[in-house]
Design goal:
Elements lengths: L4 H4 L20 H12 L12 H4 L6 H14 L1 E3 L15 H4 L2 H4 L4 E6 L26 E6 L17 H16 L5 E6 L8 H12 L3 E4 L7 H13 L6
Parallel strand pairs: 1-2, 2-3, 3-4, 4-5
Helix pairs in contact: 2-4, 7-8
């Protein structure tokens, strides 16, 4: 039996049932946004080591998909300001935000400043400069500040450079970040249990936030503990009277 080339290619006058074509842009914008959010939102802070190659393929479909996907990806996720991973050479690494083109930075809504890593020697890239590009991020409304450790605590005596070294570094860094984010509204604090909410570092950071005229809040899970909630509430009310 002779088999023609057209048969092998599936073109031998074979009738295939027509399939309905689903056109993504026939959906209302609200539903498109939900679909893109399902695909592009991640449940963790995005740092420089985040592998988003699978998601970025979506950006290549068309110009309209690119624009809508970028608005969701950069607007619905939280991005870390400075690299913190131990496997990353943070002393030489360019921060993730600085790698974004200005139009992507304009889509950002939420950033995270994680404090504690490299507490004896902050990397050279942990600086607020024009090349970081925060002034382009005029959509950022929320800054999350997570405190891993407070080197001013007595347990760090003998290991730290000085009692006030990291407190002054972190406070100054937060002040510069606040200054360069033109439309920042809220600073949300979070911490590890070992960090005292009344310690020198957290006190300084909250003072800087209030001095910058920003609303101070705490991560929701921290407020589930009645004792800690009372402490944090009292501190939030008192912080406006503190002096730097």
């Amino acid at each position: 039996m002779e088999i023609s080339t057209s048969t092998l290619l599936g073109n031998d006058n074979i009738r295939h049932p027509s399939r309905p074509v689903f056109r993504f842009f026939d959906l209302p914008a609200e539903l498109r946004n939900k679909v893109l959010t399902y695909e592009l939102h991640v449940n963790k802070v995005i740092d420089i080591d985040f592998d988003n190659s699978r998601r970025l393929f979506l950006f290549l479909v068309s110009k309209q998909v690119h624009n809508e996907a970028a608005a969701v990806f950069y607007g619905r996720n939280t991005f870390r300001l400075f690299p913190t991973q131990g496997r990353v050479d943070a002393q030489k690494m360019k921060p993730l935000i600085a790698r974004f083109p200005p139009h992507y930075r304009a889509d950002l809504v939420s950033l995270e400043l994680r404090l504690g890593p490299f507490w004896t020697k902050p990397p050279a890239c942990w600086k607020v400069t024009d090349t970081l590009g925060l002034k382009d991020a005029d959509g950022v409304r929320l800054l999350k500040v997570f405190v891993e450790i407070d080197p001013s605590q007595p347990v760090f005596i003998g290991f730290r450079i000085g009692k006030n070294f990291y407190t002054n570094f972190a406070g100054s860094l937060l002040r510069q970040v606040i200054y360069d984010l033109p439309r920042l509204e809220e600073i949300q604090f979070d911490k590890y249990p070992s960090v005292s909410p009344e310690g020198q570092l957290v006190t300084r950071l909250m003072n800087e936030a209030k001095a910058g005229g920003k609303r101070v809040t705490w991560a929701a899970e921290k407020l589930s503990c009645p004792v800690l909630k009372a402490t944090l509430t009292h501190q939030a009310k008192a912080v406006s009277t503190w002096q730097i």
